[in-house]
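REQUEST FORM: STRUCTURE PREDICTION
Request ID: SP-0412
Submitted by: Lab K.M.
Chain count: 1
Length (residues): 187
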Amino acid sequence: MSEDVAVITGRGGQGTKLAVSVLGEAALGIGCFPMLYSIYDGLIRGGKIASTVVVGDEPPNTPIRSEFEVLAALHSGWFERFQPKVPDTGFIFYDPSYIGPDYPGLTRTHAVQIDFADVAARVGDQRAANMVAVGVVAAFWGRPSLESLRTAVVDVTPAHRQDRLDANLKSLEAGWEIGLPYGAQRS
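STATUS: Completed
RESULT:
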């Protein structure tokens, strides 16, 4: 059974749960089986959060994993907890605004600096940094398709966030372009 496993870490309010929901919805759209799981501090905004997504050709047994092929870190929140769970062959996409390149352990993996909010700001709205991460992860995996992701963004974006839809789609596409070369390096 083929499975792709990722964790997106950040702070509450950055949209990590929405990000894995988009990945999961898009995976369903191409006939795959997603499973999602999030853990977070008791704070509503600003607390640590880690959202996991597993996409399988068959239904995954559990989203709780001891190892993650890819980590997208939007903030330093829980980075220290999940970074060691990325194997030497894995990829870490991290925001240098919050995590320095000299962080212990980054040299043993494929570590890539991406200023997610800056990329999102350049195409429309820095608040869509989570959609940049979605694009990076999906392009790295080679699935779900960009078209399935676009549909999922439209379907999953809450009604009170429809004003951000265009920026979310542009940020998704920008992340996809950033992630493509790294997918070609995948072991």
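NOTES: The first strand starts at residue 3 and ends at 11.
Reviewed by: T.R.
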